[in-house]
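Recap quiz, item 2
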Amino acid sequence: MDKHSIHLEGVRVAITGGTSGLGLALVRELHRRGARVAFVARTAERVTAVARAHPGTIGIAGDIARKDDIHPIALQITGNLGGLDVLVNNASSLGPVPLALLADTDCEDLEAALAANLVGPFRLTKALAGALAASARAGRPAAVFNVSSDAAVNAYPTWGAYGASKAALLHMSRIWDEELAPEGIRVLSFDPGDMDTPLHALAVPDADPATLKRPEAAAQELADTIAARVMVPAEARP
Amino acid sequence: MIAATRPVQRPRDAKLLVVLADGRISHVPRPRFVEFLWPGDLVIANDAATLPASLHGVHAPSGAAIEVRLAGRRPASVSATAFMAIVFGAGDFRMRTEDRPGPPALAPGDRLALGPLAATVEALLDHPRLVSLRFDADASSVWAGIARHGRPIQYAHLPDALALWDVWTPIASAPVAFEPPSAGFALDWAAIRAMRARGVEFATITHAAGISSTGDEQLDCRLPFDEPYEIPAATAAAIRRARSRGGRIVAVGTTVVRALEHAARRTGVVAAGPSVANQRLGPFSRLRAVDTILSGTHEKGSSHYQLLRAFLDDATLAAVSAALDASGYRTHEFGDSVLIEKDWRRARRGRGRAVRRSSYWPSNRPSTLPSVSAMRA
C-alpha cells in the first residue's frame, strides 16, 4: 500500500453497481485498503468473477431497481459483513440509450431511470438504516455516499431522465443527511466527474477516452472521502 | 382479543394499554407511548433483523415435501451454516400449525433439498420434528440461498404471505431473529427523535428471537429455546448512566427483558458482550435490570404472558386481560401494545429489586402525567 492512501481496515462497506466502472474500481480500492467489501450487481456471472478476483469480497447478485430484490440484498450485506458502516449507492441507469430529448423520451425510460437512480437508493438506504444506526450507536461513524453527477445540477439537453433522477437523488441526500445526522449517520453526495466508464461510453459514444478521468482516480478520491468520514482514531474506539 | 390479520406494523388506530406502577390502567393511541417516558429514562430495543427462516423443499430419502423452519443456532456456534430447525410435512402457513402433519421419519445423514440449498440432518434433538442441520455450502452461498428461497415464518391468522419488509422493524440490523421482535414494530424514527427531544436515551441489544409455536404441545413446552444475544458495550454504558441518574430501564419487547435479565442475573449489573439466554421468566422472577416493558398483547398461557407476571401481580394482570378484551384490542405480532411499569408495591414487599430506586420516584416523576383519554374502538 502506498503511503498516501488511508487505511480502511475492518470498515464494512457495501457498493452497488460493483462490477463495472467506478463501482468496480471502488471495490478494488477499498479491498486494497483493508475494508470488508460487499458489492451488488445484476449479472450473476460477473458478480462471481469479480468476487473470485478479489478474495474476501462478497458478491451479491441483485437489481436495486427491483423492489423484491432490496431486502434479500440487504440481508446478504448485513449477514455476511455482520453489520454495515458505509453504503455506496453507485449503480445508475442512463435512461434512454442513445440519449434523447425529454419530449422524445419514453415514459418507461424515465421510470427506469428513477427506479435505478432514486427509488432504488431510497429503498436500500431505508432497509439498511437500522444497521447503519446500530454501527453509529456502537461508536463507528456511519455514512451513505450517493454517487451524483454535474447533470444533477446543470441542465444538459438529452440528459433529462438521468439528470432529473440524479437531481432528485442529490436533494434526497441533503434531506436525509439532515434527518439522520442525529442518529450518527451522514448521507453525502459524491460527484466523480466525467469518467472513462461503460456508462459514459453509452451516453457519449464518440468521446475521446484520453480526455476522461480514469475511474481508478475517482475511486481513490471517494475512498479518501469515506476514510475521512468513518475512520475513528484508535484511542477513541470503544 | 381479536387476531390482527393484516401485516401493518404501525396502523393508524393502534392502541396502547398502560399500567402504571400503582396498578392504574388507561388507554391511549399507541404513538403517544413516548409521553409515558420520563427524562432520564433509557429505552432499549432489540435491533435483530428477521431471517426468512421458512424453507420449503423435499426430504431426499423419501421424496416427501417438507417445510423446514430454522429455529436457532446451536449455542456458541457462530457458523452461518449450522442451525437447529423444526421440520413439518406437506402444507404451509395457511394450515394451523397444530394441524400440520409431521415430517417423514428423519435420520442423521438425511439430505434435504431446499430450493437452491442442500442440507444434511446432523442429529435428531429428542423429538421427531426437531433437528440440527448443516447446509452444504459456504457462508455466503447459504446467505444467498436463504435470502432468495426463504420466506418469513408465519401462522394461519395472517391469510396473505408475508414479505421480508413486513417483518423487519425500522431499526432492523443484524439478521439473527427467526421471528420478528415485534414489540419493535411500534417504533419508528420519529419516535426515537421524540424520545431524544424528551431527554430519553435510546439503545439497542441484538437478540436472536426464536419461534413462538411448533405445532406440537410437547415441543411448545420447551419454548422459548435458548436464544443467543449480544449487548453492545455502548448499551451497557448507557444502562450504567441511566442507573446513576435514577432513570428507568424501559425494555421494548420480551426478548429485551430476557436478555437484560440474563446478563444481570449474577451481579445485578448488565454486562456487555455475547451470551445465551436460557432462563424463563415468570411470577417468581426478580427483575434486576428492567423497570418497564413495552410489549405486544399476550394471551394467557403463552411464555410471553408468563414473563409479564414478573412485572405484575396476577390480579392486576387479570384486570389487564379483561380490559384488553373489553376494549377490542388486537393480538399477535401486528396487534396492539401494552406498556407496563413494574409494580413497585411488589418491589417494596421485597420481591423485586427496586429498594435503591425509591429515592428517585418522587423527584423524577413528572408532576403532571400525560392525560389519559379513554379510547374505544
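The mean pLDDT of chain A is 94.
Chain A has seven helices and six strands.
End of item.
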